[in-house]
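Loading example: each entry is read as two labelled lines plus one structure line.
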Amino acid sequence: MARQAVPLAQAYRLLNHGPTVLVGAAAGDRHNVMAAAWCMPLDFDPPKILVVLDKATYTRELIEQSGEFAISVPPRALLSATVAVGNRSGRDGDKFGPLGLHHFAGDQVAAPLIEDCLAWLECRVVPEPHNQSRYDLFIGEVVAASADDRVFSGGRWHFRPEDEALRTLHHVAGGAFFVTGESVDGN
Amino acid sequence: MARQAVPLAQAYRLLNHGPTVLVGAAAGDRHNVMAAAWCMPLDFDPPKILVVLDKATYTRELIEQSGEFAISVPPRALLSATVAVGNRSGRDGDKFGPLGLHHFAGDQVAAPLIEDCLAWLECRVVPEPHNQSRYDLFIGEVVAASADDRVFSGGRWHFRPEDEALRTLHHVAGGAFFVTGESVDGN
């Protein structure tokens, strides 16, 4: 695989089909990652996204301090880690090592991007204190985007038969997911 | 099929996996329907959802007048109609008849629910003028929810082999979609 930059005007396409994501954040020497099913595009260009972050999460605390976060889109191969990341709190200890997750530095933000994911959106918080406090709702402007060119290129996701383990995930509830399925054209 | 009520505390599960939806609205004797890929849960109980509605849309005009809307989750069988609904404006004429779409009355709101869809969420707008004007972002409180019991029951989506035409849809861009795929358990 090669991580390739995605033009910012196409960044919404990384989330448009509604995959469950991992949210990474860092502040000072602390960093963490959580899972989020409630994340979607808000605008095309400049691209903005929405993500719901419960007040109890350590990731939110780091985001509120740093004003930055990174979305990573996990593949089916990271299904168990995605569930585990969502069930543990970073306040109880580092999640990365015990879950076998590795991270790397983004191009524009200090928040951790998760290795072996398929797409990454680096975001700066657009401050909206009312939304954040009342609805746990955060707006991020996407300042860099990239994707694994095995499954996303030319502005499109494409999963070949040999890419079954690289399909994205859609959470229903309680650790039950659907894998992204067959491609269909409505035109 | 039988349309069965879904408990409000489980309503988020109708949207949690990120399907593309149809948004119906009515005001006075006018009604319309549009497609939206940017719709997701915001809260569990009482359930709230988010939907992004462009200022140019007729549906938004009706929602701003009535304070209500209805989300319908279309199946693969309605793929062409879903694309067509998104490409036409209700200002240019009624969409329902020409596209072969039928609608029925909800239990709590006057907005049209679309026949042959799989799930329905009847919503009242939670007024947030700043979000609406700046981000085209609307919050709805779900006041009634229901689903086709062939594919949603016991709080879960379940697509049997004979339900291929009833799988939900996930928009990527430009009329290209993924169908909801295989079920996997991350526990």
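Residues 21 and 73 of chain A are 5 Å apart (CA to CA).
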